[in-house]
Amino acid sequence: MAGQAANPTSVPVPTTARSGPISHAVFRIARLHRMLAGRLLRRAGLHPGQELVMMHLWDCDGPQRQADLVCVLESDSATMARTVQRLERAGFVRRVPDPTDRRATIIEPTAASQALRHEVERIWQELEEATTDGCDPTQRADILRALTQLECNLLNRTGRPTPPDA
Questions:
Q1: From 54, 58, 152, 162, which residue has the greatest number of CB atoms within 10 Å?
Q2: Which GO terms describe its biological process (predicted)?
Q3: Taking all residues of the chain, what is their mean pLDDT, rounded to a whole number?
Q4: pLDDT beyond 50 at 49
Q5: Alpha carbon of 38 to those of 23, 62, 124, 139, 140: distances in Å?
Q6: Is 1 inside any structural domain?
């Protein structure tokens, strides 16, 4: 059904969610987006979330402490540890003890991950195109503005700081 917009009224909204139709839509969209992202990322040998770790590592000037990745990516220690272990087994990152703090671990992308970078960029482009298919540039800008506003609203309600670029 590429290029065609589904009729949003065809999606049954549970009675208890009728007071929150936007929240229900956000939930459905997030679930479908993650499902498609997972399908596309599997082709590159990744699971959803692993690409975000790699994106951050590629953008940094040097290796990162695992604890810093937890903070930046708003994860928890156990999830990040499993993610890094899987990325290490795949050969995309290397873990080494922090020379200044033996309790900490340093994570760095490997040379092998550079080929993955181009694949992740392609996957995110494909995901973006699938998500915004049929939208013109003005609609895309409006959607991004609305999503940014929703994110800021939720950040305020959860007590998290709003990013300066929001």
A1: 54
A2: response to stress
A3: 90
A4: yes
A5: 22, 28, 11, 26, 23
A6: no
The total number of structural domains that make up the chain: 1
- Determine phi and psi for 64, rounding to 5 degrees: -125, 145
Instruction: Determine contact, residues 52/64, Cβ cutoff 8 Å.
Output: no
How do residues 74-132 score in pLDDT, each as one tens digit?
A: 999 999 999 999 999 999 999 999 988 888 999 999 999 988 999 999 999 999 999 99
Cβ contacts of 77 within 8 Å, gap of 6 or more: 66, 67, 70
Q: Residue 122: in which H helix or E strand, if any?
A: helix 113-131
Quote the CA–CA distance of 136 and 129 in Å, as a whole number: 11
**Residue ranges with strand state E in the chain:** 64-65, 93-98, 101-109
Tokens of 91: 């050969």
Answer for the pair 160, 81: CB distance below 8 angstroms, yes or no. no
